[in-house]
C-alpha cells in the first residue's frame, strides 16, 4: 500500500439536511426518518459524490480505520422489511438480522464497496461466506480476539487492524497516514464524549430523553460521517438538557439484549410507556470503547488496546475479566435502576444463553427482572405491553 | 475363503466400539479417583498438550451426542430447560449442563468434573459453554484464539507474513496454556514427551487420510456418515495415543483389503448411489437415519462431518518433530482453519469432493442445534447445483432434540430424492446406450 497517495483534505460531503430552524422536535423527527429509511439516503448521497462505503455487521468495528482511509463506515444492522430474496439463502432456526442484512444487499438498497462481518456467533460467522457468494464486492471476516486475556492479543490485533486498513486503502485508493489516523481518533473521541453525554442524560434525567429517541441519535452515527454526527450532537445535547419535560411515576430499568439484532423502535416506545430505560446495551458496538483513545504513539495500536482493555461487554465477547452477569449488575447499579428487562432476539443463541446466567444472578441479588424475546420484524406489542404493565405494577404496588 | 468372511472385515467397527467403551470406563475411573480431567472440544482439542501433562481429555460434545444415540437426551434437555435454557439453543450445551447438575451421571459411565477447560474459537458456542463451567466450577478456562480464514479460500490467499503472524499468536497462547497446565499438574513441561505424542498423532492423521481417500473406490468401502462417525469418535478421544494410531493403521489396512476385494458396506454395492453428507448426523434416530438411505442403495462416500469434526485431521499436515511447539501451533492454526472452512466456505470443497468421489448426490442436513454448521447450507446448495450435475436433498432436523425430528417427513423427502436418483440413473444409462449404438452404426466396418 505504500504507493497509494496520502489522503488529501477535501470538501466534506454533507449527508444530512438537518432542519435546525424547526427546533428540537423537528430535528429529532428528521433523525428518526433517516434511521428508519430502508433506502439509506445518506449512503446513497455519499456514493453519488464518489465516496466508497464499508458495510460492517454488528457488533463492533474499528470505524476509525475506515474514516482515516476516506471510506464511510456504515453499520449493517438489518431492519424492518419484507424479505423477497434473502430467505432462500438461509435455513430455519436463524435470527432475522442475518436475513434482513443480506436482503438489503441483494435488493440494492444498501450498496457497499466492502463488507466485513465478525464471528460474533455461530450464525453470523457464516455471513461473510454467504455475502461473498452472492455479491461481487469483497466480503471478509475480521477476527476480534476471543482471548483478550492473552498478553499477545494486543500485538496481534494491531497487526490485524493494519491488514484491514490496507484493504480499506485499496478500496478508497488513498493511503491513511498516522496523522489521518490520529485525526480520526480525535473525531471519534469527540463522538464518544457526546454519546456518553446522551447516556448521562438518560441516567440523570430520563424523562428528557426516552429510550427510542436516544436510540435514534446513536444509530444515526452508523449512517453518516462522525464529523457530521458530532455537529448534530453539539447542537442537540444542550437543547435536550433544556427540554421542558416533566418527571413521571415510572420505574427505572436497564434494557439488556440489544447488542446485535435491534428491537423495533415501536417496541422501545412501548417500553418507555411504563419505564425509564436508564441504561442499555442497544448498539453497544458504537459505544464499545469507554473513554478517549490516546492519540500519542501508534494510533492503530492504541485503538486495538482500547478495544481490549477499555471497553464495554457483550454476550459475544469472551473475556475472563468481564463475567457478563457481574457486568450487568454493574450496569444496573451504575444507573441506579430498580429492575432489568432481560431481552433476547429470537433464535439469538448468545443472547438466549446469557438470559440463563442473568436470571440466576438477578434472582440471587433480589433484583426484579422481566424476560422477553423480540424480533426486528415484530409489529404487534399488545401482549408484551400487558405483561410489562403487570410487571411494573407488581413493583410499584408491592 | 470368501473375502467377506475374512476377520479383517468389520474389525474397525468392533475395535472402535471396544476402544470407545474402554475410554468411557477410563473416564469413570478418573471421576472416582479425582484425577485431572481437561474439558476440550473436537475442533482444536489440544489433546497433544493434555497428554503431555497426563491430563485426561473429556469431550463434552461426545458425551452429549451419546445421550442422544442412547435415547436419553430428552431427560437431560428437559432438566436444562427447566433451569431456564431456551429450546432454541444448542442441545449439546443443554445436555452437558444437565449432566453436570446430575453429578456426571451418563449412560456410558460417570463423567469427571473439569480441572481445566481448553477451547478454541472454532465455534462460538464453545465460548458460551465454557463460561457455564467457569460459573459452576471456578476452574481455569483457557481459550486459544485461532484466527480463521478471512475470506473464502480461492478468493483470497493469505501471504506468508499473514500466516506467520497468526502462527505466532497461536504459539504464544500455547505457551500460556502450558503455564496453566504446569501450575495445575505441578509438572514441568517435557518437550520430548510432546514430541512422542505428536509422532503418534502424525501416524493417526496419515492413516485417517488414507481411510478417507479409499472411499473413492467403487464400490465404496465404508459409509462416511454411519461408520465414519464411529471412527471420528476414536479419532478425537484417542488422538495423541499409541492405541489410537494403531487403530487407524489397522483400519486403513482393512479398507485397503475391502477396496481390493470390492467389499461394500451395502449388501449389494453394485447399484450404489454415491452420496456426500453435509452437516451433523441425526443422533436421536442414528441407525434409522442411516437406514433411510442405505435401504435405497445410498452410501455416503464422504461427509463434511469427517472433515470439521476431526478437527482438521483430514488436512495433509504433519507435525515437524524437530520444532514441536512451533509445529503444534502451525498445525492447530491450519487444521482449525480447515475445519472452519469446511463449515463456512465448504462449497468449493464439496465441488472438489463430488469430482473426486464420483458423487451422484449431496445430502444437506442442517440442524437446529448447530448454526455454525447449518447457516450456510441453503446457499451452498444453490452454488453446488449451479456448478455440478448432481441431485441435492435438503432436510432439517436436529442432532439432539427428538421433538424436531420427524421420521415420517424425513422418509418422504428421502424416498422422493432416491426416486429422482433412480430415474436419473436410468435416463443416463439409456442415453449412454443410445450414444453407443449410434456410434457403432456410424463406425464404418472393414
Features:
heterodimer, A: 398 residues, alpha/beta, four-stranded parallel β-sheet, globular, B: 446 residues, 17 helices
Characterization of this structure:
The complex is a heterodimer of chains A (about 400) and B (about 450). By secondary structure, chain A is of the alpha/beta class. Chain A contains 14 helices and eight strands. In chain A, the strands form two sheets. A four-stranded parallel beta sheet of chain A has the order 2-1-3-4. The longest helix of chain A has 27 residues. The relative contact order of chain A is 0.14. Chain B has one domain. Chain B contains 17 helices and ten strands. The model of chain B has no long low-confidence stretch (mean pLDDT about 95). Classes of the chains: A alpha/beta (about 400), B alpha/beta (about 450). The interface between A and B is large, with 61 and 59 residues.
Shape of chain B: globular
Tell me the structural class of chain B. alpha/beta
The helix content of chain B is 55-70%
Supply the number of helical segments of chain B: 17
* Helix content percent band of chain A: 40-55%
Summarize the main sheet of chain B. 4 strands, parallel
- Which stretches of chain A are poorly predicted, pLDDT < 50 over at least 5 residues? none
Please indicate the percent range of residues of chain A in DSSP E strands (runs of 2 or more).
5-15%
Q: Categorize the overall geometry of chain A.
A: globular
The largest β sheet of chain A comes out as: 4 strands, parallel
Number of helices of chain A: 14
Instruction: List how many beta strands of chain B DSSP finds.
Output: 10
Q: Within the largest sheet of chain B, what's the order of strands?
A: 2-1-5-6
Reading the helices and strands of chain B in chain order gives HEHEHHHEEEHEHHHHEHEHHHEHHEH
For the record, give the distance between the C-alpha atoms at the N and C termini of chain B, rounded to a whole number.
47 Å
Distance between the termini of chain A: 65 Å
Query: Residue-averaged pLDDT of chain A, rounded?
Result: 95
Q: In percent, how much strand structure appears in the residues of chain B?
A: 5-15%
Order of helices and strands of chain A: HHEHEHEHEHHHHEHEHHEHEH
Amino acid at each position: 500500500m505504500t504507493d497509494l497517495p496520502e489522503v488529501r483534505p477535501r470538501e466534506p460531503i454533507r449527508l444530512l439536511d438537518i432542519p435546525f430552524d424547526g427546533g428540537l422536535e423537528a430535528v429529532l423527527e428528521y433523525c428518526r426518518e433517516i434511521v428508519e429509511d430502508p433506502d439509506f439516503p445518506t449512503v446513497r448521497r455519499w456514493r453519488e459524490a464518489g465516496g466508497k462505503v464499508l458495510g460492517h455487521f454488528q457488533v463492533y468495528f474499528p470505524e476509525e480505520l475506515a474514516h482515516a482511509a476516506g471510506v464511510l463506515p456504515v453499520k449493517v444492522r438489518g431492519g424492518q422489511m419484507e424479505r423477497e430474496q434473502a430467505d432462500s439463502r438461509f435455513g430455519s432456526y436463524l435470527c432475522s438480522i442475518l436475513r434482513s442484512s443480506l436482503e438489503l444487499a441483494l435488493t440494492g438498497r444498501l450498496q457497499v464497496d466492502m463488507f466485513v462481518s465478525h464471528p460474533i456467533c455461530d450464525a453470523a460467522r457464516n455471513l461473510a461466506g454467504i455475502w461473498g457468494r452472492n455479491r461481487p464486492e469483497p466480503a471478509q471476516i475480521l477476527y476480534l480476539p476471543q482471548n483478550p486475556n492473552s498478553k499477545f492479543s494486543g500485538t496481534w490485533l494491531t497487526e490485524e487492524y493494519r491488514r484491514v486498513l490496507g484493504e480499506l486503502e485499496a478500496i478508497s485508493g488513498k493511503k491513511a497516514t498516522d496523522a489521518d489516523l490520529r485525526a480520526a481518533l480525535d473525531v471519534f473521541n469527540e463522538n464518544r464524549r457526546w454519546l456518553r453525554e446522551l447516556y448521562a442524560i438518560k441516567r440523570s434525567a430520563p424523562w428528557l430523553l426516552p429510550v427510542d429517541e436516544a436510540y435514534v441519535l446513536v444509530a444515526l452515527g452508523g449512517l453518516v460521517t462522525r464529523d457530521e454526527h458530532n455537529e448534530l450532537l453539539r447542537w442537540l445535547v444542550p437543547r435536550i438538557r433544556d427540554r421542558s419535560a416533566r418527571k413521571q411515576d415510572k420505574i427505572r430499568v436497564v434494557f439488556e439484549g440489544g447488542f446485535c439484532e435491534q428491537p423495533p423502535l415501536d417496541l422501545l416506545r412501548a417500553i418507555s410507556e411504563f419505564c425509564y430505560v436508564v441504561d442499555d446495551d442497544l448498539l453497544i458496538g458504537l459505544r464499545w470503547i469507554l473513554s478517549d483513545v490516546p492519540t500519542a504513539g501508534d494510533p492503530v495500536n492504541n485503538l486495538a488496546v482500547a478495544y481490549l482493555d477499555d471497553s464495554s461487554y457483550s454476550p459475544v465477547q469472551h473475556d475472563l475479566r468481564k463475567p457478563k452477569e457481574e457486568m450487568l449488575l454493574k450496569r444496573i447499579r451504575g444507573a441506579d435502576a430498580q429492575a432489568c428487562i432481560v431481552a433476547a432476539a429470537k433464535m439469538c443463541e448468545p443472547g438466549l444463553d446469557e438470559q440463563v446466567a442473568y436470571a440466576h444472578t438477578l434472582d440471587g441479588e433480589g433484583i426484579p427482572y422481566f424476560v422477553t424475546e423480540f424480533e426486528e420484524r415484530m409489529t404487534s406489542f399488545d401482549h408484551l405491553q400487558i405483561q410489562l404493565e403487570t410487571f411494573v405494577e407488581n413493583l410499584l404496588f408491592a | 475363503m470368501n473375502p467377506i468372511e475374512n476377520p479383517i472385515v468389520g474389525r474397525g467397527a468392533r475395535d472402535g466400539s471396544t476402544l470407545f467403551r474402554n475410554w468411557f470406563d477410563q473416564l469413570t475411573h478418573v471421576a472416582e479417583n479425582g484425577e485431572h480431567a481437561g474439558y476440550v472440544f473436537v475442533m482444536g482439542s489440544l489433546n497433544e498438550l493434555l497428554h503431555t501433562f497426563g491430563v485426561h481429555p473429556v469431550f463434552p460434545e461426545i458425551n452429549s451426542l451419546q445421550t442422544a444415540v442412547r435415547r436419553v437426551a430428552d431427560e437431560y434437555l428437559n432438566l436444562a430447560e427447566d433451569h431456564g435454557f431456551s429450546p432454541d439453543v444448542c442441545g449439546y450445551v443443554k445436555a452437558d449442563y444437565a449432566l453436570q447438575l446430575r453429578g456426571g451421571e451418563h449412560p456410558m459411565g460417570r463423567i469427571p468434573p473439569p480441572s481445566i477447560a481448553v477451547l478454541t474459537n472454532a465455534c462460538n458456542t464453545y465460548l458460551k459453554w465454557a463460561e457455564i463451567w467457569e460459573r459452576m466450577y471456578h476452574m481455569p478456562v483457557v481459550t486459544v484464539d485461532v484466527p480463521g480464514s478471512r475470506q473464502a479460500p480461492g478468493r483470497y490467499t493469505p501471504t506468508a507474513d499473514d500466516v506467520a503472524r497468526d502462527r505466532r499468536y497461536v504459539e504464544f497462547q500455547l505457551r500460556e496454556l502450558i503455564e496453566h497446565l504446569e501450575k495445575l499438574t505441578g509438572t514441568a513441561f517435557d518437550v520430548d514427551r510432546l514430541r512422542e505424542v505428536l509422532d503418534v498423532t502424525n501416524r493417526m492423521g496419515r492413516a485417517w487420510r488414507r481411510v478417507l481417500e479409499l472411499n473413492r473406490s467403487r464400490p465404496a468401502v465404508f459409509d462416511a456418515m454411519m461408520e465414519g462417525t464411529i471412527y471420528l469418535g476414536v479419532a478425537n478421544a484417542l488422538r495423541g495415543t499409541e492405541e489410537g494410531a494403531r487403530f487407524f493403521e489397522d483400519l486403513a489396512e482393512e479398507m485397503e483389503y475391502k477396496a481390493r476385494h470390492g467389499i461394500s458396506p451395502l449388501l449389494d454395492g453394485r447399484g450404489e448411489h454415491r452420496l456426500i453428507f453435509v452437516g451433523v448426523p441425526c443422533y436421536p434416530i442414528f441407525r434409522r437415519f442411516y437406514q433411510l438411505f442405505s435401504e435405497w442403495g445410498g452410501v455416503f462416500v464422504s461427509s463434511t462431518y469427517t472433515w470439521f469434526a476431526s478437527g482438521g485431521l483430514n488436512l495433509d499436515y504433519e507435525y515437524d518433530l524437530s520444532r514441536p511447539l512451533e509445529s503444534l501451533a502451525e498445525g492447530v492454526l491450519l487444521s482449525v482453519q480447515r475445519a472452519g472452512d469446511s463449515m463456512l466456505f465448504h462449497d468449493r470443497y464439496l465441488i472438489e469432493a463430488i469430482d473426486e468421489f464420483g458423487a451422484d448426490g449431496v445430502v444437506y442436513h442442517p440442524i437446529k442445534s448447530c448454526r455454525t454448521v447449518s447457516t450456510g447450507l441453503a446457499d451452498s446448495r444453490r452454488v453446488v447445483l449451479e456448478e455440478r450435475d448432481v441431485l441435492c436433498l435438503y432436510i432439517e432436523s436436529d442432532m439432539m432434540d427428538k421433538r424436531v425430528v420427524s421420521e415420517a417427513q424425513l422418509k418422504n423427502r428421502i424416498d422422493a430424492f432416491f426416486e429422482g436418483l433412480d430415474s436419473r440413473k436410468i435416463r443416463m444409462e439409456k442415453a449412454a446406450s443410445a450414444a453407443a449404438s449410434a456410434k457403432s452404426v456410424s463406425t464404418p466396418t472393414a
